[in-house]
Amino acid sequence: MRLITYNRIKKTAVLIIVSLLMMTAVSCKGKEEEKTYRDFLGEEIYDASVFAMVVETIEGEEEPGVIYRKVLDFNNVISRCDIPVCLYFFSSTKTDSAGVTAGVEDIAQLLDGRLLVVGIDILQNRDLVGRYDVTMVPDFVLVEQNVQKAAFGSEGYDYWTTTDVYNWLVEQGV
After folding, report:
1. 119-160 per-position pLDDT tens digit
2. What is d(CA 110, CA 55) in angstroms, rounded to the nearest whole number?
3. Is residue 65 within a helix (H) or strand (E), and if so which, with residue range?
4. What kind and span of H or E run contains 148?
5. What is the DSSP code string of 77-105?
6. Same domain, yes or no, for 8 and 51?
7. How far apart are CA 131 and CA 154, in angstroms?
8. DSSP letter (8 states) at residue 63
9. How crowded is residue 161: how many other Cβ atoms within 10 Å of its Cβ?
10. Contacts of 129 (CB under 8 A, 6+ apart)
């Protein structure tokens, strides 16, 4: 009788352990699906070829500012972002890109919470240049729910400013 009770307890314990392991596996799978685009952003870095301009409180500062975070997985950032993404295509070899980039930082800060700006250096990311059919830099592409919604098309302008880009984004519903 004791042997039967011991075997029954042993079987029950094994069933409980297996059930707990299965629940843990399901729980981990659920957490994987809950990841947001921020889970695919890396360290603060200012020379990455693909980076997100995120507004965060900077250490030692009272007001939030734009921080460049390395994009670790472009496809997951684009597909998991619950707000529109503005792709900012630039060339790290162009001397005038610093001025444009400063204006794009202003856009990222003004539209914080409504738009994520992702900078892409065309020299190191030719695959993305081809995917979004960029023919001139700097240029901007708006992506929403992992689908290209619109392109600014800077080649169509004789002269434009980042204020024009901001207005274009607002016209697109950002």
Report:
1. 999 999 999 999 999 999 999 999 999 999 999 999 999 999
2. 10
3. strand 64-71
4. strand 147-151
5. HHHH-SS-EEEEEE-TT-TTHHHHHHHHH
6. no
7. 17
8. S
9. 12
10. 89, 120, 122
- CATH for 109: 3.40.30.10
Residues 75 and 142 grouped into a single domain: yes
The residue range of the domain holding 166 is 37-171
Cα dist from 50 to 18, 77, 172, whole Å? 44, 11, 24
**Statement to judge: residues 28 and 45 lie in one domain:** no
Tokens of 59: 């250490």
Tally the domains of the chain: 2
- DSSP 3-state assignment of 15? helix
pLDDT in tens, 77-122: 999 999 999 999 999 998 777 789 999 999 999 999 999 999 999 9
The H or E element containing residue 32 is helix 2-33
Please indicate, yes or no, whether residues 19 and 97 belong to a single structural domain of this protein: no
Clarify whether residues 5 and 49 are in a common domain.
Answer: no
Helix (H) or strand (E) holding 53: strand 50-57
Same domain? 30 vs 114: no
